[in-house]
Amino acid sequence: MPNINLKNKLNQLAILTIQHLKEYLTSGKMRIVERPYLKRVVVGFRYNKGGTGITTTYRIELHQELDEESIETLIHSISRKQEFKTALNLLIEQKNVDEIIAKGWLERFLWTIIIRYYQRRLKEADINELIDIFLDEIERGVTKCRILAWLHNIHLEDAKVELDEGVILRIPMKDDFETEIPLYPPLYEYPQPDITPSAVLEIEKRIAPKLRGPAIALGIDPTIVGRYVTALQLYKRCSAYSYYIRIEPRGVIYVGGHYKPLQLLQASTFKCTLTPDETSKVRAFINKILPKLPLDEMGNPLLNHFLGIALARYQDALLKTEPLSNKLAYAVFGLEALYLGKDEFGELKHRLAQRVAKVVHLLGKTQDPISVYEDVKKAYNIRSRFVHGGFEELKDRELLDKIAEYLRLSILVFMFAENKKHLLDLIDRSMLTEKANEELKNFLAKSIGELL
Question: Do 299 and 432 reside in the same domain of the chain?
Fold first, then answer.
């Protein structure tokens, strides 16, 4: 039970540190300094389907904080105690690291205990959880983190929807916009964008940070946000995207915040709403679809795989700020990536339209597969003009709505296919024999029937 012994020693060290901190505060050995912050204060706030509206003002506030030199003096004093030396030796022995590294870890642990206790963010009962996080950072390279992502184009009728364990999608709140920026160097934070979100994705998880620069600098790539946003885009035909991400580490070794600045705004072609009765459905969808998303390690669609190409073209149709006819062409490109094989030639428009119509019909999304067939053929003609440098303006967006929806459904279908060629062969045979038709119908019902 070597880890239990180490945890016990860390617990004793933490309690000793709190005791000494109290003594330093009482005796005046711990200096308290005042530091100025620029605080953004919300004086008016509203949220509805039309958007979020806020009125803000700014004021200077002085915060009482512990002096860094006094903290270092306290930690130096504790480092001479037997409790510190025992915990240090256990770290060196059990983690097989150099004394300098182990001492740095332990000093960061003490620093965190001191700061959080003074800020009343740490009770003695919370010490064990902090120790678990600290050991996770050392052993598994994961840390507890809170991520807030501002989303556009997705609206909630309920206050929040739980998407996964530790992941909620919620309405914006007043607290989201009340921020503080230090007015002293060398700290700097990206300011929040002026554009307010339609929803906030809030994630509380233990994740693996990616280090940049010094060993304790935190640079978590927010790909976890991209995965959930992509899943929401596939749950409904929705142009949801994140444009501001704030990362707040809650661990010991990895410290500081990471802010993603405002990106260029993308299209609002497909806005969507989540209703209260969808809460359980969207969570089931997320849990089933998340492991199958064709994304690379950076959270982008895999462009060396037909499914990733289809997803990328679907996102082009959702998010690119281009004419509707161009977005329609992108959606057709996505259908082609799914329904056409690399060695197929001749009558591609007919074959594509026929296969899409068959799948959409068996999914129960239409009673008239001929209309789907005609939709795809018409869209294919517009796509062909686009490829060859032509342009046809869409008078209305009905056809784009339909083709984008056919692509969304089809991506979900092909995610659960073990082999693309086998599925295409089954779709073709289903038009010829009732046995193949039943086999395809059963596959669709089993794979994504419960998700629709």
Answer: yes
Mean pLDDT of 115-135: 87
Task: Write out pLDDT tens, residues 162-185.
Answer: 999 999 999 999 999 998 888 876
Domain that holds residue 431: 295-451
Q: Would you say residue 371 lies in a domain?
A: yes
Under 8 Å CB-to-CB from 106, ≥6 apart: which residues?
13, 84, 87, 88, 91
Q: How far apart are CA 326 and CA 400, in angstroms?
A: 10
* Nearest one of 289, 275, 269, 306 to 405, comparing CA atoms: 269
- Token pair, residue 269, equals 């072609």
Check: CB of residue 52 under 8 Å from CB of residue 196. yes
For 125-137, b/e burial (b = at least 16 CB within 10 A) is: eebeebbebbbbb
SS3 call for 244: strand
Q: Contact 286/201 with Cβ under 8 angstroms? A: no
Residue 328 domain-assigned? yes
Is the pTM higher than 0.85? The answer reads: yes
Domain boundary among the residues 97, 116, 139 is at 139
Q: Does position 234 have pLDDT exceeding 60, yes or no?
A: yes
From CA 178, how far away is CA 43, in angstroms rounded?
Answer: 10
Question: Domain for residue 24, yes or no?
Answer: yes
Tell me the two tokens of residue 238.
Answer: 């929705």
Are 403 and 416 found together in one domain? Answer: yes
- State the average pLDDT over residues 436-450: 95
